[in-house]
Amino acid sequence: MIILVKPLSSFKGDRIALITHSGCDVDAICAAAALFFSLQKKNKAKILIPNHISLPAKALAKKLNIPYTVSKSNSLNEFNCLFLVDFNDLKMADSLADKISAFKGEIFLIDHHRFAEKKIAGKKNSLVDQNAVASCEIVFDWLKKSHYEINETASTCIAAGLITDSAFFVTANSKTFAILSAVLKKSNRTFSEITSLFSIKQTFDEKIAKLKAAKRARIFLISDYIVVISDVGAFESDAASALVRIGADIAFVGDTEDGLIRISGRASQNVVKKAGFDLAKHVFQKLPSDFSGSGGGHAGAAGFTGKGKDINAVLMKCISLSRKFFKKKKGCQFKEYT
Ligand SMILES: [Mn+2]
Fold first, then answer.
1. Which of 98, 140, 227, 270 is 20 to 30 A (C-alpha) from 213?
2. Chain-wide mean pLDDT for the chain?
3. Contact 138/113 with Cβ under 8 angstroms?
4. Residue range(s) defining the domain that contains residue 40
């Protein structure tokens, strides 16, 4: 990627908040931490996580002694600069969104998600590359370009981010392995030592949720692809991934709680690469025109959060939007397997 953003050394003395998206995942905490450990000497930096951190990210942060604050409404007054890490849509900052939009200093974006319609920062402050496998890849490039030394812990972080966001190399490319080779060496850790930093034993509830998702699944054929919808009480993203692993090309799994609807979508590499299907673009970014809420993500993994109770209506909309995409193809068949 071409890096237009200034080198990290020119931030010398700045007080920087490294803010991840809410529900911070391994790539987000690792990208923020790799920057944090590299900036530490010349800057006052802090990692802020809106609302909550995922269990794997939390486990890794604990083992690597990554300092962070989970915050519902942290004041940003002590900072003169913000780095938004692993997101570029203000909605993903959840409880910190208002504080970020009211922020007077400079804001920089370090991300690999599809650009949100409303851009938070201009081009020269945006390190956003949709083709990057992980935000950690972008951080690696920026550190290299800035001639910064990437120490043992920062290298470990970058490796972990690449492994998790490539879904254990399912979406990896030659660059992923080139970076991984470099950081693995620097990390002084083996591959399995790195994966053990964020491995969480599958809980009983998670197993039940995945099995229930499979039991309740409605199975459709759209064009040549198997598209599945289901609903669970929790773990909807894990359930969607599980459905893709057992044979669905595309899976949408929903969950409702206290008038809130969450939908997670997962698509196989086959349907993304071969058919050009993009969950974020063709389905999740379109849901807010029919349902109040926000949606976005990647081609192969995306999500929607909104208000409402009728989960089936949203799931069926996912089906009709997917169908709309494939309808362009000649002789597109559609049926439900009952
Ligand atoms: Mn990421």
1. 270
2. 94
3. no
4. 12-198
Which tokens belong to 329? 């193809």
Instruction: Tell me which of 172, 198, 224 is where a domain ends.
Output: 198
Ligand 1: centre distance to CA 86 (Å): 5
pTM higher than 0.85, yes or no? no
* Residue 146 Cα to ligand 1 middle (Å): 22
Tens-place pLDDT, residues 126-162 = 999 999 999 999 999 999 999 999 999 999 999 999 9
C-alpha dihedral sign at 39, 166, 156, 198? positive
Name which of 227, 247, 195, 221 is nearest 63 in CA terms.
195
Q: Is 52 exposed, middle or buried (0-12, 13-18, 19+ CB in 10 A)?
A: middle
CA of residue 331 to ligand 1 center, whole Å: 37
Q: Which residues surround ligand 1, an ion (CB under 5 A)?
A: 27, 86, 135, 165
Specify the DSSP class assigned to residue 125.
Answer: G
CATH code, domain carrying 255: 3.10.310.40
Using the 3D structure, point to which of 163, 198, 233 is the last residue of a domain: 198
Kind and range of the H or E element at 101?
Answer: helix 97-101
Distance CA 61, CA 1 (A): 28
